[in-house]
From TrEMBL:
<dbReference type="GO" id="GO:0005886">
    <property type="term" value="C:plasma membrane"/>
</dbReference>
<comment type="similarity">
    <text>Belongs to the VAMP-associated protein (VAP) (TC 9.B.17) family.</text>
</comment>
<keyword id="KW-1133">Transmembrane helix</keyword>
<feature type="coiled-coil region">
    <location>
        <begin position="149"/>
        <end position="176"/>
    </location>
</feature>
<comment type="function">
    <text>Endoplasmic reticulum (ER)-anchored protein that mediates the formation of contact sites between the ER and endosomes via interaction with FFAT motif-containing proteins such as STARD3 or WDR44. STARD3-VAPA interaction enables cholesterol transfer from the ER to endosomes. Via interaction with WDR44 participates in neosynthesized protein export. In addition, recruited to the plasma membrane through OSBPL3 binding. The OSBPL3-VAPA complex stimulates RRAS signaling which in turn attenuates integrin beta-1 (ITGB1) activation at the cell surface. With OSBPL3, may regulate ER morphology.</text>
</comment>
<keyword id="KW-0256">Endoplasmic reticulum</keyword>
<keyword id="KW-0472">Membrane</keyword>
<keyword id="KW-0812">Transmembrane</keyword>
<protein>
    <recommendedName>
        <fullName>Vesicle-associated membrane protein-associated protein A</fullName>
    </recommendedName>
</protein>
<dbReference type="InterPro" id="IPR008962">
    <property type="entry name" value="PapD-like_sf"/>
</dbReference>
<keyword id="KW-0597">Phosphoprotein</keyword>
<keyword id="KW-0796">Tight junction</keyword>
<keyword id="KW-0965">Cell junction</keyword>
<keyword id="KW-0175">Coiled coil</keyword>
<keyword id="KW-0007">Acetylation</keyword>
<dbReference type="InterPro" id="IPR016763">
    <property type="entry name" value="VAP"/>
</dbReference>
<feature type="transmembrane region" description="Helical">
    <location>
        <begin position="205"/>
        <end position="225"/>
    </location>
</feature>
Length: 226
């Protein structure tokens, strides 16, 4: 039985009668609640065959658990007049009975089998040699769009890196300005330190404007890409 076992899995068992007499058969299992067998008994004419469907009910599959389920196909030569199948099996002598035992094996398909099944389910490509209704698309159009998109993404990453760099510089200047402001409070207003503070404050303004402009550019490119 091949998984997955979340639904009913059916396996066919072919029984053939190679003799020149009719043969009665009966299929038994060690786990009758787990399997549905159709037909589970019957008569096979000489030289004929019959297909028995064995349906495994859904269950939780454990690959580490070894299967102990078994089937037995029991057969005996049919009497000249068959009126009651139950009576045939009750009256059959042990030396007149023949049996074949089968062990159940559960297997899960591997990844390669799954990929093969998916590929087989895909429709084969159809080559149309007739005249096309419209012009054929240019083969380089898709690659060109991909190239432009890749360039925009790289440019956006570069601008974001610049924004981070400028933000770090602005933070450094802000911290330096706070430090100088504290020093200025302890000095006189006309001292060289106070003059240096005013100069640093005026110099930090253009850097702040550059950071704001870079943020707007990065936000605009980010929306355009996404």
């Amino acid at each position: 039985f091949s998984g997955p076992f979340t639904d009913v899995v059916t396996t066919n068992l072919k029984l053939r009668n190679p003799s020149d007499r009719k043969v009665c058969f009966k299929v038994k299992t060690t786990a009758p609640r787990r399997y549905c067998v159709r037909p589970n008994s019957g008569v096979i004419d000489p030289g004929s065959s019959v297909i028995v469907s064995v349906m495994l009910q859904p269950f939780d599959y454990d690959p580490n658990e070894k299967s102990k389920h078994k089937f037995m196909v029991q057969t005996t030569y049919a009497p000249p007049n068959i009126s009651d199948m139950e009576a045939v099996w009750k009256e059959a002598k042990p030396d007149e009975l023949m049996d074949s035992k089968l062990r159940c094996v559960f297997e899960m398909p591997n990844e390669n089998d799954k990929l093969n099944d998916i590929d087989a389910s895909k429709p084969a490509p159809v080559l149309n040699t007739s005249k096309q209704d419209g012009p054929m698309p240019k083969p380089h159009s898709v690659s060109l769009n991909d190239t432009e998109t890749r360039k925009l993404v790289e440019e956006c990453k570069r601008l974001q890196a610049e924004i981070m760099k400028l933000t770090e510089e602005n933070r450094h200047l802000r911290d330096e300005g706070l430090r100088l402001r504290k020093v200025a409070h302890s000095d006189k207003s006309g001292s060289p330190t106070a003059l240096a503070l005013r100069d640093n404050g005026s110099n930090s303004l253009p850097s702040l404007l550059v950071v704001i402009a870079a943020i707007f550019i990065g936000f605009f490119l980010g929306k355009f890409i996404l």
